[in-house]
Amino acid sequence: MIGFNITGYLIFALVTSITPGPNNYLLFSYGRNYGFQDSSKLMLGIFLGFFVLLCTSGYGIAGIIAENPKIEFILKIASSIWLFYLAIVLSKLSSNVSVDSNSKIGFFQGFFMQFVNPKAWIMAITGASAFLPQLDNIHLSVFIFATTFGLIGVPCMIIWISFGDLISKILKSERANKTLGIVLFGLMIFSIVMIWI
Predict the structure, then answer these.
(1) What is the rounded average pLDDT of the residues 132-144?
(2) In-domain check, residue 62
(3) Staple partner for 46: which of 1, 110, 156, 197, CB 3.0–4.6 Å?
(4) Whose CA is closest to 111, among 178, 197, 6, 23?
(5) CB 169 within 8 A of CB 61
(6) How far is Cα 33 from Cα 158, in angstroms, rounded to an integer?
(7) For residues 86 and 98, what is the distance between their CA atoms, to the nearest angstrom?
(8) Dihedrals φ, ψ of 103, to 5°?
(9) In the predicted model, what is the mean pLDDT of residues 32-41?
């Protein structure tokens, strides 16, 4: 494990947080369907779920799980099923979604999704192995690592939700929404394929 390289760590956290992945596709879809105003529960769920994953990675637990072939295989299956479900949800974009829709994804879905999100696992394990601060107190090291990474992710989440909200104001036709839904479905299926490669 290398020493704490703050500049490299911040760049790593920003790049991995802002680039496309299951969380960001979900946030984009949510912003597209329901707007930015009602997104706080979903974002809080994602933030706290990822924070817990970062902490487990900092303590080395996530690395042990990832190195166990049986557990890794189970996680891959769970990830594939969950991402396929999300692919179906994201493919059903419509310009006529009700704000009070029962299909709305909230805190618990965002929280538990982190534990079957392959990109989140890679980000957490790679980040902990490369950038965990080497302080005398392991708890303080893990807290600084997880909090910093999590806080960098917040503006990235806001950008993706806002982008979805903006698209909802630009795309008014059902045909455009169906096309966007197909694109998001394809991206999520690609995410599933990447799990097994």
Answers:
(1) 87
(2) yes
(3) 110
(4) 23
(5) no
(6) 15
(7) 19
(8) -85, 0
(9) 83
